[in-house]
Amino acid sequence: MLSEELLELVKRIQSQKCEGQTIEVKAAQGGCPKLYETLSSFSNQNMGGVIVFGLDEKQSFASVGVYDAQDLQHRASEQCKQMSPIVRPVFSVCEMDGKQFVGMEIPAVEAAERPVYYKGAGKWQGSYVRVGDADERMTDYEIYSFDAYRKQIREDIRETSADFDSLDKNLVSSYLQSVRMNRVNTANLSDEELLALMGLTKNGRPTLAAVLCFSKYPQAQFPQLCLTAVLVPGMQMGDVSEDGQRFLDNKRIEGTIPQMMEGAVNFVAMNMRAGVRVQNGKRTDVTEYPLTAVREAVLNALVHRDYSPYTEGMPVRLELYQDRLEIVNAGGLYGAIDIDELGRIHADTRNKTLISVLENMKIVENRYSGIPTIRKQLAESGLPAPLFEDKRGLFRVVFYNAQAAKETGKPGSLEEFCKIPRTRKEIAAFLDMTQAYALRRYVEPLIERGVLAYTVPEKPHARNQKIVTVPKE
Question: pLDDT tens across 137-173, in order?
Fold first, then answer.
């Protein structure tokens, strides 16, 4: 960061009077503060972050300057050496009104090296994640998720207590026949050798992938590895119908992954509304959501979810509201991919064996076409683009229906939504999250990039403040 860029950042922070997902402010007027938690949280997120020294948050981000720019850099660097792995910051210095300010850029660490933690506290107490403008200690599961990626822990091929009598012999036989036909080097292997080679047995017992794909009843071994589906009578969980019902339909969908997928699609088909579209004098029946997109979203949730012991008690959830469909699964994004890169790059795969088995069963294509298909299907149906959210170990996809798009003007992105000036409350409702989190996680980064802007920029916290998309040149 150049000195001029740091000066602009200082001015912007003072104008907005807030920190953010990638910005932390430290006064440093009387010495170098402790930085371990922020060093950890910034290093552990893909966008990294910047610590700005010389502003005092307690004094409404007033300029106080730093005590000694050179000594501050030295002492901050010493703290970086106490991290594991060591953090390598980049410093910059600027002056304003006779006061010095120091910027400390914290680069993101490769996903395979995370979590970055303070060695003095140890991994389980010294690892942090950034949530809005706060550094929060990682949960045991979040730390495990990084370890699982770094060590390539394969939960889908872990040994189970199931036996072969619990597997459907016809399904297994059909699968082995398909493998032998498509992979010539396996033609002369015995069934036992082939099952072990394909990751379906370990130490002579079925693996988790085998149970999920071929068991007569997988939930006998793993009761909560199922899918729950509900039809909510309102817009939020907890809304009730006129006769006091919380759910108009409520199903626990069990079976193998293909069976759960079909059960979920059937649930949506039975409960979603149908309509008629008239175009060029022709009437066409239309569904509330394209079932091809629903199928892909459900399948993604079932095959890409986390199957570790930490999440065995968490079913995939399908929730059908009046204005939207939500599908939620345990396990956030795997590896180093960002939410904006979904469907646009080839991502790391969490459950490699499970997906390979389902590919042979013609259930998945394994060509990274699922999310592009979802986007295409929704667009062709005249619906907003899907919303994807990765939030501390949970992944959520949301489809908005035509009624929601018409009544609220819900587009497929925040940039489109704010082409009409929006209040903070409207944006929070659009993103379906708290106002504070919506502003810190989504709005402020876009304002920093010049995509969005305040309608009253000189007073960011004005009561009549709105946020609008900046016109493109």
Answer: 999 999 999 999 989 999 999 999 999 999 999 999 9
How many structural domains is the chain composed of? 4
pLDDT tens digits for 322-343? 999 999 999 988 887 777 777 7
Query: Which residue is associated with the tokens 């396990």?
Result: 331
- Asked if 87 contacts 53 with a C-beta cutoff of 8 angstroms, the reply is no
Confidence of residue 375 (pLDDT cuts 50, 70, 90): confident
Q: What percent of the chain has pLDDT over 70?
A: 93
Q: Indicate the pTM of the whole model.
A: 0.78
Tell me which residue of 108, 58, 59, 69 sits closest to 92, measured CA to CA.
69
Q: Which residues contact 454 (CB under 8 A, 6 or more apart)?
A: 447, 460, 465, 466, 467
* Same domain flag for 254 and 401: yes
In this structure, the chain runs to a length of: 473
Give residue-wise pLDDT tens across range 176-197: 999 998 888 888 899 999 999 9
Could you tell me the CATH number of the domain that includes residue 462? Answer: 1.10.10
5/448 Cα distance (integer angstroms): 12
φ and ψ at residue 237, rounded to 5 degrees: -60, 130
Instruction: For residue 58, give the 3-state DSSP assignment.
Output: helix
User: Are 124 and 204 part of one and the same domain?
Assistant: no
Residue by residue, DSSP assigns 237-270 as TT---TT--S-SEEEEE-SSHHHHHHHHHHHHHH
Query: Following DSSP, what letter does each residue of 204-239 receive, concatenated?
Result: TEEBHHHHHHHBS-GGGT-TTSSEEEEE-SSSSTT-
| Same-domain check for residues 279 and 427 | no
Q: Are residues 130 and 186 in the same domain?
A: no
Strands (E), 243-368: 249-253, 274-279, 282-287, 316-320, 324-330
Q: Could you tell me if residue 243 is inside a domain?
A: yes
Cα-Cα-Cα-Cα torsion 24, 30, 36, 38, nearest 10 degrees, comes to 0
**Nearest of 142, 89, 175, 165 to residue 354 by alpha carbon:** 175
The shares of helix, strand and coil residues in the chain, as percent rounded to the nearest 5, are 40, 20, 40
Distance CA 212, CA 259 (A): 10
Q: How far apart are the first and last CA of the chain?
A: 26
| Residue 119 structural domain | 3-151
Element spanning 126, H or E: helix 123-126
Token pair of 161, please? 């207590």
Which of helix, strand or coil describes residue 348? Answer: coil
Q: Residues 19, 109: one domain?
A: yes
Q: Which residues pair with 62 in a beta bridge?
A: 56
